[in-house]
Request: fold
Amino acid sequence: MTGSAPLLEVLERARTLGVLGPGPVIDHVIHARCFIDALADLPAGSSLVDLGSGGGVPGLVIAEARPDLRLTLLDSMQRRTALLVEAIEFLGWGDRVTAVLGRAETFGREPEHRGTFDAATARSFGPPATVAECAAPLLRTGGLLVVSEPPEQPDRWPVDGLELMGLAVEQGDSPGVRVLRQVAPCPDRLPRRNGVPAKRPLF
Reply:
């Protein structure tokens, strides 16, 4: 599966406008398959938040492959969020996909979102400690975090650091991504203030 023509049109526009990374759109879609494969066991009706959705990868690609999921595409930039809103309307997915303008740290401190998502995804959102601290508060206990992982990198996910957030590495082979599970509720003190997770990572 390489994406429908309407989806590829949306992503091509995002690339042209500079909100999707360089290279052919089809390569971005193919890479997003790693996320879809890692989420294969996520039950129908589950909720997923995509952190730093940008041009819509992997969020929109997941939404097309898994119409049985409810997705929230979160981004902190007005321009990117506006494009996501337009894309969702163009694709006719407004009943199950929502684009939200906001910081992940703020979103994770809001009671209506905290601990409510079954899964979270992140591609090029930031280093491991930043991703973990921003995602963990949003996940219910048992939820999954799927993160794009550079090839041939040393282990970037220390057990002790992840425990601070209630996360643990999910064992198994998931090429191209790292899969973690929320094994305990994220402590109330996390996430810290906007920008702090990136400036002062916990591991």
Residues 25-38 form the longest helix (14 residues). The radius of gyration is 16 Å. The longest strand covers residues 139-148. The helical segments are 5-16, 25-38, 59-65, 78-91, 104-109, 128-135, 159-163, 196-199.
